[in-house]
Amino acid sequence: MRRIIPFAPALYILFLMLPIYWLLNMSFKTTNEILGGFSLWPNEFTLDNYRTIFTDPTWYMGYVNSLIYVSINTTISVAAALPAAYAFSRYRFLGDKHLFFWLLTNRMAPPAVFALPFFQLYSAVELFDTHIAVALAHALFNIPLAVWILEGFMSGVPKELDETAYVDGYSFPRFFFRIFMPTIKAGIGVAAFFCFMFSWVELLLAKTLTAVEAKPIAATMTKTASSAGYELGLLAAAGCLTIIPGAFVIYFVRNYIAKGFALGRV
Amino acid sequence: MKTENQKAWFLVLPVIALVAFNALVPLMTVVNYSVQETFGNNIFLWSGVRWFEEILASERFHAALTRQLIFTATILAIEIPLGVAIALAMPRKGPWVPVCLVLMALPLLIPWNVVGSMWNIFALPDIGLLGKGINALGIDYNYTQQPVAAWFTVILMDVWHWTSLVVLLAYAGLISIPDAYYQAARIDGARPWAVFRHIQLPKMKKVLTIAVLLRFMDSFMIYTEPSVLTGGGPGNSTTFLSIDLVKIALGQFDLGPAAAMSLIYFLITLLVSWVFYTLMTKDEAE
Question: Which of A24, A257, B179, B236 is the most buried (most CB within 10 A)?
Fold first, then answer.
């Protein structure tokens, strides 16, 4: 029994990789070959699908747009969440518990019907079809999460650190940027990772708030699926490429993800 | 110990401003729709609580809610124990740890519609690996026609997609346990179950609170993946609440009932999350 245990994660990873392999496999096939029959690897290996994506601006701009609004969103969410998380971890104030739960409730609104009011709101403030609009809209569900994660990390830092700094004559902003933020940089990494992740994978709001200028890659993909029949090979290649930015980010925070939470009391 | 300081409100202000901008206006718009009737052309008539009464009494809503509850309960019952078990089986140190973590996090970083379409093909009985594999075992499986197969596929997809989140959080909780705890347990001759029950589980409580709440909220609102995978079918068998909601809102363009339904939906999510939240953070308050 004992010897089987280490194989469990390996088995799990194998299970995770199977659908991804299938997507990768399809991305090197022509659409005809995909529909033509079942094969474990591409018989007529082709890079045409990837070539189309990298040469057609309607395709590759989708990735650029997604990356822009995701970066803006991650910056805004973490920047706003930092002071708030500090407040929640260090002070008691009127309505703090309710406020915290209210923030969380914003992850619970079914986006399906809230999409229309979002469209009206962002049209009214003339931000429709901009990267900022999507970044702000995604802040709705990312800020609560960032506050939650950061609050955990900050509570793991002893309060003596703050007090010593004040005794040494540090002002609050100087203490916060020079001493406190470097101390919890793992937490900032983890929070940024989760903000990136949830903003990158969301489609419904991103699609509602954009038309041409800021259209995300996920929306480009749904358009192709409906207009040009089923270009499965192309779709698979686009899908494979959506995994890459995420893989990069997770690679950079890999040590934080493991060690990071250990510092916090989350 | 935390100090009482009302000035802390200033630190929270940016967050409140950002979230309120996004939350209050759309929420009030939905409340507004939910009590009116529209015939297009921006003509609205007051209809009071009629839509709420209709939704609450409708068989269709009950059916979708039941499916939703069964789905969420099932995936929580699978993903939480499975995630914890995998986290426990993971090595604590070594060169393989970052590799495992990166590979495990991959499904989390795939856009939801891509997840839906990749499983859509992966599970097809003629050209998909999963569908072909199950049929090769001698089981008749076609998720586009059999409700049971459709449910199986949707649940398997969600387990594939989200178990890693539980693994990551549980693993983070586990490695924060100092070695001294394990040494003490060894000296006492504690069995693995006792170590798990009295050391590991209590230490993971915080991260598991996050995991359970996130998984509850997100699975309760699941829309994109099943709508791409099965479109709610075959028949209505995988029409979860949000899929039904979109059918009403966009398909039939009944703004009033759709708004009323999304408010009821929101309140149910809120209530259940509040119960989870209070139960799981109870000790902290004392």
Answer: A257
